[in-house]
């Protein structure tokens, strides 16, 4: 009975370390990684895995690593069954590691990375998974030491850049802005744009504003106004047709937005174009 009580006490305390390890398997098909408040490492542990994401096709082999910072979501397609070790680290654990390193804990943020190799991450991940499978014979101190060692290594090798507050990465920003341009005439929801970027909707609002200097909805309005101005200057379309082509719900909506952004009405833009 004493051994059982010790194990229950250990299991109750372990989550407070801010470290969780699990072994995950999935059949072939669509994989959706939801946004969570923890940082995550995914270490491929099975046979070669073929798949594709929005950007390219890939083949993962054992030991390939993905690093997902807190708040990041992602979607991809697996052509084969997959097996991986998943390690979750809380922001509090990284803050503690940053303090031990003499760094600003408010800057304990990681950079998103895909399909890279790091022998030290592999070594710690396999050790954590072996300890999990064996029922945690190493005890709480063993898990805590490995978790801190992993956090220190991550902050030393893969910290987010802080020349300014972190926004969307260049590939993420390019994907989102290109998607907006290609779908201006459609209903652009925040959830859809967040999916394109691979982050949560609330995270997209913050990161997009840091990257572009204005909220995502205001950026969309400005791009629609520019599209409408171009179409009006080209001629050949009625104001109502231009409004729909540029993604506005109706002509008066376009007029209000154009007056706010450009300071002129659609009729003035069309008239000035004809006068040239």
TrEMBL record:
InterPro entries reported for this sequence: AraC_XylS_family_regulators, Homeodomain-like_sf, HTH_AraC
UniProt domain HTH araC/xylS-type: residue ranges: 174-272
Entry keyword Transmembrane: no
Record-level Gene Ontology MF annotations: DNA-binding transcription factor activity; sequence-specific DNA binding
One of the Pfam families matching this protein, by short name: HTH_18
Keywords, in A-Z order: DNA-binding, Transcription, Transcription regulation
Signal peptide bounds: none
Keyword presence, Signal: no
Gene3D superfamilies per record: Homeodomain-like
Name of protein: AraC family transcriptional regulator
